[in-house]
Design brief:
single chain; alpha/beta; Dihydrofolate Reductase, subunit A; eight-stranded mixed β-sheet; two-stranded antiparallel ribbon; globular; DHFR-like_dom_sf
Amino acid sequence: MRKVISFMHISLDGFVAGPNGEMDWIKVDEEIFDHVGKRISEGDTALYGRVTFQMMESYWPTAADKLEATKHDIEHSKWYSKVRKVVLSKTMKDADPIAIGSTNTKIISDNLSESINEIKQVAGEDILLFGSPTATHALIQEDLIDGYWLFVNPVILGRGIPLFLDIKDKINLELLNTRQFTSGVTELNYLVVRK
């Protein structure tokens, strides 16, 4: 069965964004882009919350076409155009081509557990959940996340949007690997251990 892996930048004190959604504290550079690019190139399904999806959809479909496009822009834009996208949203509808952009996008607005488990049963690679703290919180509540791919940034925010919110039960994790980047960011790759 496929796994849902939450891919998230996080502060040392557990926040994924500042109080107003600020992400200007996140450190990204070519070293991180290359590392992440290799990992996600194997993925065939991206999972987003509505806000993150709309942010992605406003940039990535045409990012490679810009004169100032970087290597990362070109590679990620190519990947984004071919990957299947799943969006968790109560307001967007599958039938609205303006809202969903590309045709390989599925909207899940209800029956979260059943819908995600159906996607997990379809043959393919891991399902990568990008950012999307609200969607992540909903998936955690339903015990639908199978792993955490965290990039711990060397900053303490003090307040903001936490990655883990209202956890009902303890979540046991197995550390698969770590990596230190020259920027000071540390990658932590965990698998959820279920009894």
